[in-house]
């Protein structure tokens, strides 16, 4: 399944939703953004990855973000035991929904790891951007372009 | 609870394609319990439909609302303000809710967003199983609290059928318990196995769907 618009003449926008428990103190800001080298990252801290509902992510994609990367804790590190597992299942479900409406499922990803620094979050966002770049920008931006 | 599931997304998208402004209406009761038509699902389906239609080159405005109950007129009335100006409604409540909206907001077209299929219980997270067939002639008092109409693949009144697997599962579906095995086991535990030797006669189906559209009048409750 490939999104329609191939031209990529603007930054790839990636929203990172990250669990506050999976980060070092340095990275703990409720929200921040970074823009460089064709990549625009908006990061939003969540109380737990399990708080990330399917419709939150859809709203982000609907508003034009090219991709969403969720950073959840590893299996045995989740403060709420099953929070990150729930997040993983929701991502799987969401990717299925995206595929069914003709969107690239890779627009949503999840990394289950403890991030040591803000740079690590940016690196994960870059990896997500690289994964979606071949499919072009989010079709929701089509109207904006014209 | 009344169980429902989303219709195929393509079907929903096709239905909405001719419209410009639509109200997507959820219900916070049964269909919320089965994760098909509650507030979360309403707020999930709306952006999904907008995104799908946008990809087809069609911009649509989709308003959302989730009523406490779509099967009660007092709650349905709460939609009146939002319905003004929409050219279609999609309801993800059960079939009762869909019909209530169609009746109240005629002539606006009302589309069902879900298929209503069963009366279920949530056995565990993410697993629902039928428990009642609304047959109108309940036999649970004779079958130790297990419904053979809803839970036996053949709806046998005098089971088991003989096809029960060795592990007590149904021959039709290996993931489903043979309800007659469950009935016999509970009867044994309660020391009343002999009660099952009484032949149960054919049910009176006239009080189910077979008797035509149901209409119940309680004079003591009427105005």
Q: Which helices and strands, and how do they pair?
A:
The complex is a heterodimer of chains A (146) and B (223).
Chain A: E1 12-19, E2 31-36, E3 39-46, H1 54-62, E4 67-72, H2 83-100, E5 108-112, H3 118-132, H4 142-145
Parallel strand pairs in A: 1-3, 1-4, 4-5
Antiparallel strand pairs in A: 2-3
Chain B: E1 2-6, H1 9-16, E2 21-27, H2 30-33, H3 39-55, E3 61-67, H4 73-76, H5 80-83, E4 88-91, H6 95-104, E5 110-112, E6 114-124, E7 127-132, H7 148-151, H8 179-189
Parallel strand pairs in B: 2-3, 2-4, 4-5
Antiparallel strand pairs in B: 1-6, 6-7
Keywords:
heterodimer, A: 146 residues, alpha/beta, Rossmann fold, five-stranded mixed sheet, 4 helices, 32% helix, globular, disordered N terminus, B: 223 residues, 2 domains, four-stranded parallel sheet, elongated
Structure at a glance:
Chain A is of the alpha/beta class.
Describe the structure.
The complex is a heterodimer of chains A (146) and B (223). Chain A is α/β, with parallel strands linked by helices and 146 residues long. The radius of gyration of chain A is 15 Å and the shape is globular. Mean pLDDT of chain A is 85; it is low at 1-8. Chain A has one domain (12-136): Rossmann fold, CATH 3.40.50. Chain A has helices spanning 54-62, 83-100, 118-132, 142-145, and strands spanning 12-19, 31-36, 39-46, 67-72, 108-112. The two termini of chain A are 24 Å apart. In chain A, helix 2 links the parallel strand 4 and strand 5 (108-112). Chain B is built from eight helices and seven strands, in the order βαβααβααβαβββαα. Chain B is of the alpha/beta class. Chain B folds into two domains: 2-117, Response regulator (Rossmann fold), CATH 3.40.50; 135-197, no CATH class. Chain B has helices spanning 9-16, 30-33, 39-55, 73-76, 80-83, 95-104, 148-151, 179-189; strands at residues 2-6, 21-27, 61-67, 88-91, 110-112, 114-124, 127-132. The model of chain B has no long low-confidence stretch (mean pLDDT 96). The interface between A and B is medium-sized, with 18 and 14 residues.
